[in-house]
Amino acid sequence: MDVIVAPITTQNGQEQSKVVSTLRKPSKGGWNSAIFIIFVEVTLRFAYYGLAGNLITYLTNDLHQSTSTAIKNVNTWVGVSAIFPIFGAILADSLLGRFKTIILASAIYFLGMILLTLSVSVIPTHYREAVFFIALYILAFGEGGHKPCVQTFAADQFDEEKPEEKAAKSSFFNWWYLGIVAGASSAVLLVIYIQDNVGWTAGFGMLTGALGVALFIFLAGIKRYRKQAPVKSPFTMVAQVFVAAMRKRRVIETQQGLGICYDAGGTDVEGQPGNSRTLAATNQYRFLDKAMIIDNLDASSKPRNPWRLCSLNQVEEVKLVLRLLPIWLSCFMFTAVLAQTHTLFIKQGSTMIRSIGPNFQVPPASFQSLVGLTILFTIPIYDRILVPAARKLTGHRSGVTMLQRIGIGLFLSVIEMVVAALVEAKRVSIAREHGLIDTPKATVPMSVWWILPQYMISGISDVFTVVGLQELFYDQMPESMRSLGAAAHVSVIGVGSFVNTAIITVVQAITARSSGILLGDNLNRAHVDYFYWVLAVLSALNFCVYLWIASGFVYKKVEGEEPQQGKGLDLDM
Fold first, then answer.
1. Which residues cross the membrane (predicted)?
2. Model confidence band, residue 178 (pLDDT cutoffs 50, 70, 90)
């Protein structure tokens, strides 16, 4: 309740003060609303990783698929789940808005998980596989609406016009990812254990119940959210700039131009004053600048034709998208490496000694929690220790630039594959020494903790690259296209999964002609270490390409604001 001292006039004309109490409206935005959204995302990741984390085990053990077929099916489903968000982002930005898209996607996800639970319990055996895959792709469809909107909607709760909320947003991405990892790690430790030791029905039923609770909690915070209204399709704006530039390709500004169109449009938040910001002109992709030149035809046209004349802001927003495209392409190998944590790493660990004490064996898929636990420890250290220390050295508010952060993770992914290859070579040599090379189901006398380093390096690289990509694709995308930016970040994982499948297919085709097929069902003769070396070499080449691309990257510049990032990989302002 707010207490206000208000002046009043008495009957004799004298002015007095009166205490008036008013009820304070619930504040919108900030951490008060973001916490509801974070909880929903934590629960959704709990459900997703409770399924994805052990999917290869269900496909090979219960549906009796071969290892290579199961890996390809997992990669395809993960890939489709990460590609669909592009369409969900378009739907959110141009038609429904993020809030309504989240509700719709969450409902679809909930129904898909119900069907998945039924497919492993009451559905007849001869229909089980078909219903299971139908349910999987209903879940992928739900992911398409959920993934691009939830993080963006949560970040929208922090007003960039308020210095304290703008500072909180930078830290938000670290803690957001920490919450995701907490949900994923809980699923990997708890749900996968239940799936392996109690049953698939109990495991999937737990995920279904969690989704129902998450949907209820999201709706409970409905009055606290800042909601952004949908705008026109982002692809329309991009197309208009390209068409206008093409139509004026022969126009010379100094001879035929009457000036530049500077009017800027912005996207307002419901209930908030306009918060559009004017972007500063940049020298990259100069051919697009033709779109904002006003010629005689534009000057005589009322109203202006958006397919012939675009504003400075529109042109610069398209340039932002074009600058992000090479970064997006250069991260595919990182996610191809990331795919090993829920496929080959699991199969690798399943052949090793996993016992803790005399009566307990750790499920092989549960070792994915090592990635999550590493992240849980690393993010607070990074946010509270490394960033302040780096800030003193560089003067940058985040310690390092977003591109530097991504680059560190890409380099670590190369190290991860080198370590994984060496450990796998050691495992095979021990299997050979004990005469187990042709006994694929036998346990190799080697502790599973040998694979701990590769999981830990994967977690540390995630802290740098995945969080860095999340922040980059939110911060550097046009404000009206931020859902699409989140979808682009998520689609890196999807395309990387397809890249991993393509590499497996090519490698198998090549090796089948000579030394026998790679990645066969007998892991002891599958030459998995060779495959890891292939990924290490490709990742190293990709890292070099990334350095070249990032060195020429130009960060977003806003008129009247001091730039927060340097150019490319530099910190110089």
1. 34-56, 76-96, 103-124, 175-194, 200-222, 324-345, 365-382, 403-423, 455-474, 486-510, 530-549
2. confident
Q: What is the pLDDT of residues 422-454, one digit of tens each?
A: 999 999 999 999 999 888 888 899 998 999 999
In which band, very low, low, confident or very high, does the pLDDT at 569 lie, cut at 50, 70 and 90? low
Pairwise CA distance, residues 454 & 459, whole Å: 9
Cα angle 510-513-518, degrees, rounded to a multiple of 5: 60
Q: Contact, 462 vs 409, CB < 8 A? A: yes
Q: Is the dihedral of CA 137, 138, 142, 145 positive or negative?
A: positive
**Can you tell me the distance from the alpha carbon of 451 to that of 374, in angstroms, rounded to the nearest whole number?**
14
Alpha-carbon gap, residue 9 to 28, rounded angstroms:
35
CA dist 109 and 44 (Å) reads 9
Cβ atoms < 10 Å from Cβ of 124: 7
Task: Identify whether residues 152 and 72 lie together within a single domain.
Answer: yes
On whether both 209 and 297 belong to a single domain, the answer is no
Under 8 Å between Cβ of 110 and 40 = no
Residues 155, 299 within the same domain: no
Query: What letter represents residue 87's amino acid?
Result: F
Q: Are residues 302 and 338 in the same domain?
A: no
Inter-CA distances, 562 with 140, 230, 534, Å: 41, 29, 44
Give the bridge partners for 15, in sequence order. Answer: 9
Query: Nearest CA to 494 among 80, 105, 53?
Result: 80
- If phi over 0 gives left and psi between -120 and 50 gives alpha, with beta otherwise, what is residue 271? left
Asked if residue 271 belongs to a domain, the reply is no
Domain co-membership, 258 together with 139? no
Contacts of 523 (CB under 8 A, 6+ apart): 67, 347, 348, 351, 440
CATH assignment at residue 96:
1.20.1250.20
Nearest to 516, CA basis, from 457, 407, 438, 462: 438
Helix ranges (H only) for 156-199 are 163-186, 192-197
Query: Is residue 570 included in any domain, yes or no?
Result: no
- Do 299 and 320 reside in the same domain of the chain? no
Query: What is the pairing mode between strands 355-356 and 360-361?
Result: antiparallel
Q: What is the CA radius of gyration of the chain?
A: 27
Q: Are 405 and 390 in contact (CB under 8 A)?
A: no
Q: Does 495 fall in a domain?
A: yes
pTM of the model: 0.73
Please state whether the peptide bond connecting residue 388 to the residue before it is cis, i.e. omega within 30 degrees of 0: no
Residues 187 and 50: beta-carbon distance below 8 Å:
yes
Q: Provide the residue range defining the domain that includes 392.
A: 316-556
- The Cα 240–Cα 309 span in angstroms is 8
Alpha helices in 227-357 (DSSP H): 234-247, 253-256, 296-300, 312-329, 332-338, 344-350
Pairing relation of β-strands 352-353 and 360-361?
Answer: unpaired
What is the rounded average pLDDT of the residues 463-476? 87
In this structure, the answer to whether residues 439 and 541 fall within a common structural domain is yes
The token duo for 204 is 């999937």
Overall number of domains in the chain = 3
Instruction: Examine the domain organization and report whether 303 and 350 are in the same domain.
Output: no
**What distance in Å separates the CA atoms of residue 334 and residue 492, rounded to the nearest whole number?**
9
Are the CB atoms for 148 and 486 separated by under 8 Å?
Answer: yes
Answer yes or no: is pLDDT of 513 > 70: no
Fill in the DSSP letter of residue 302. S
